[in-house]
Design goal:
globular; single chain; alpha+beta
Length: 238
């Protein structure tokens, strides 16, 4: 395993705890934004064909697939840009793309949103790596959970368990799994919650009652410990 984090983690046990404590229907997903080919474990499957990042997450989440994808595997241009695999397209940059989809009143409104979409530096990502958390054979940057609002409540409580405070999330109703849950989390080092977007709900099987949450892998031990406490607390709704 590529050691890019000092603390050793038991991903299999962490996944088992999260699934059990939160009552997850599917696995949490580990994601790495690999900067070079050398970061891909030997023998790891390369995805065949071209699909969206949110669909790739779904392959790991629901089918237990472990694989990596390079830029040519990413069908969604916005997703590939957000994850640092490619430059932004001109129609996305100038606001025409989402304007033509009827998402904004004007191209200016669209551009104001696009200009604030979190994105990893273009060209800095060589490949995206995916695995259900319990099968992770690489050092992930991010852990994604897609689940109903009840689970997000417990994850929010777990996030605040040690230090308290308030949850602050950023989303815009577009590019939920790529920009909100991955790029935003990767860049900020903080957990982020998102409502899902039309694309991810249409193409990757995110259900109507489900939301998306991403957190840095550095937070995994803390989250694992805290969810066991908050879900078993006397005031917790069973």
């Amino acid at each position: 395993m590529d050691a890019t984090i000092m603390k050793e983690m038991d991903y299999r046990n962490a996944s088992a705890v999260l699934i059990r404590a939160l009552g997850l229907k599917n696995s949490p997903v580990a994601v790495r934004l690999a900067m070079g080919k050398e970061e891909i474990p030997e023998g790891m499957e390369k995805l065949e064909g071209t699909i969206r990042h949110c669909q790739m997450v779904n392959l790991a989440r629901k089918e237990g697939r472990v694989f990596y994808a390079t830029v040519e595997n990413h069908e969604c241009m916005g997703g590939a840009w957000a994850l640092g695999l490619r430059q932004i397209t001109e129609t996305l940059k100038n606001g025409q793309f989402y304007f033509k989809l009827g998402k904004f009143e004007s191209t200016a409104a669209c551009k104001r949103t696009i200009d604030r979409i979190p994105h990893v530096e273009s060209g800095s990502t060589y490949a995206t790596l995916y695995a259900p958390l319990e099968k992770t054979n690489f050092s992930p940057h991010l852990i994604l959970v897609i689940a109903e609002a009840r689970v997000m409540l417990k994850l929010a409580q777990a996030t605040l368990f040690r230090l308290g405070g308030r949850i602050t999330s950023e989303f815009s109703g577009i590019q939920s799994v790529c920009a909100d849950a991955c790029a935003q989390t990767f860049l900020s080092g903080m957990a982020n919650y998102s409502l899902g977007c039309d694309g991810s709900r249409k193409f990757s099987g995110i259900e109507d009652g489900e939301m998306v949450m991403g957190f840095p892998v550095e937070m995994l031990p803390e989250i694992v410990e805290a969810v066991q406490v908050v879900t078993a607390a006397p005031g917790s709704k069973k």
